Amino acid sequence: MKRERKLDKMVITSEAQYKEAYKKSVEDPQAFWAGIAENFQWHKKWDRVLSYDWSVPETKWFEGGKLNITENCLDRHLKERGQQTAIIWEPNDPGDDVRKITYAELHEYVCRFANVLKDNGIGKGDRVCIYMPMLIELTVAVLACARVGAIHSVVFAGFSARSLATRINDSQCKMLITADGGFRGTKNIPLKEIADEALDHCPSVENVIIYKNTGQSIEWVSERDHWWHLETRNASPEFTAEVMDAEDPLFILYTSGSTGNPKGMVHSCAGYMVYTTYTFKNVFQYKDGDIYWCTADIGWITGHSYIIYGPLAAGATTLMFEGIPSYPDNGRFWEVCAKHKVTHFYTAPTAIRALEKHPVSLVEKHDLSGLKVLGSVGEPINREAWMWYSKHIGKDKCPVVDTWWQTETGGILISSLAGVTRQKATFATLPMPGIQAILLDNEGKELKSDTAEGTLAIKYPWPSIARTIYGDHDRYKKVYFSAFKDHYFPGDGALKDEEGNYRITGRVDDVVIVSGHNLGTAPIENAINEHEMVVESAVVGYPHPIKGNALYAYVITYSNTEEANQKLEDEIKGLVARTIGAIAKPEEIQFVPGLPKTRSGKIMRRILRKVASGECENLGDTSTLLNPDIVNEIISGKVNTN
Ligand code: PRX
Questions:
Q1: Where in this chain does the record put each AMP-binding enzyme C-terminal domain (predicted)?
Q2: Domain 515-636 is found in CATH 2.60.40.10
Q3: Closest ligand 1 atom, CA of 381?
Q4: CATH number for domain 101-245, candidates 2.40.50.140, 3.40.50.980, 1.20.1250.20, 3.40.190.10
Q5: Most CB contacts within 10 A, which of 32, 38, 143, 579?
């Protein structure tokens, strides 16, 4: 049988081709993206590739085009790869059975569940909240929503009842899909119980569908609650996909801002599909027969774009992992890589840093010879972590792609292409074709010199940019399009080397004013992290009677003796003074065993700011932390600032 080659036409295989593609994408973006979009299945071709006005702001791609993304992720593969594994599912407990589902089976399962949604009154445009563990059924629920044209809003299954309720209410979800419980390491998260608590405050939810996962006993609300297995049992395995407009919303995903409620970023059907597939194929250079594993949770954008939509649209085999990297031991990631002969491994620097602290024997006892490509996402990767990852996991033969992007961007904006374009440790390197990245100074003037450091901005639309914040377009405008006129403002700082490689230096919106000087905390942390004994640091401001604010640094080190730390304190202050200026020297340095982090690996600066300010009693909600215990440890070792 002739193989489906269409999607392979979009793959860049040499540096020269990258340059050519990039040039074309800037000179004639519409022709460039039309050429890529032609590789997908459409019910009707678009009338217009792009129209936009960022003063509104408004961006439309492939207007007039009609499609359903699930036909591109499932139906189009049936002929050629119906029997190929679409998803490998690795359970939390390594002794439990692995599940594998082919494209044909996944298609059927999604159709069945789409019928369940329809029978429960869900149709085009309805919002459906999904609060589930990392099970194949989570992917099925997501795709079934897309198939009926409903807008899914996945909420990470580690969030509290209050966080869940806030998100459900913000987008007025009509249905919730959840499970009785979820396993994570030695824990069993009572999802249904948490959902019940949330739903006491969510009048918009009419029906709840519950997947039986752990088998634990749960409360039941008759009329409202329905078992997944009973609903799907007699559902038809056929479902004609709803034909969607290119610009119809596909999903909402919440992300936190520096202030206020979480922002419900809205992504639309066509542009998101085109861009995530294009970047998946090019960044990872996935080939038929490869096994791709992204360790993110589907509750985050990385899971949406690079576990589900990008890989499935590309016809890949994607692995979903139910568990955590430290269970049953800190070698679990490597065990899973060896067990499934993973070729592509994509994780976050925070995971790498946590694992590199453990004996390397935990890596070496597993056969990682199948690995071809390593990826990093979510935060700047420090040199030590990059080197350890490349050496011990990649055995110095796997390219490492450091992919910079955001919930708002939908897909990867800056990254090397594995083994095709050059990599450079700690640099995300070059923008993807279609991404017109620039650096701006504080006045919003473009920094045109070869090497520069400033605020990152994107000056032209790409297909998967979030179109709005659900229910708050003004906020969307204010946060992303007001800092610099006619530019998308991601809120990150970056520097550029003489070859045009970008290194992301961190958020620019955590600014502290010390003695009247504006100081971003990210560059100070970068300076501290340069010290060879420093693992990680977080710098925050606290009120100071003379300076207005002063800086407090929390530092994790490789050493832990008091004597060594005393010396280190002086060295760190000297280093910051040298790198940035004496004004940026932290007033206080506290050596800590860890930092409070959200489950997506972001440092919870709000807590650190309060502790530094001496307000240790009222720390607010710490339930969403990955490591809540660390807070008390930090408080007990606090340096007196009063
Ligand atoms: O600060 C950047 C950082 O994560 C932010 C986006 O977070 P989120 O929307 O949760 O999405 C994370 C997964 C895409 C960015 O503004 N970030 C993400 N990737 C990188 C990064 N910082 C440096 N290097 C990266 N590769």
A1: 524-602
A2: no
A3: 24
A4: 3.40.50.980
A5: 143
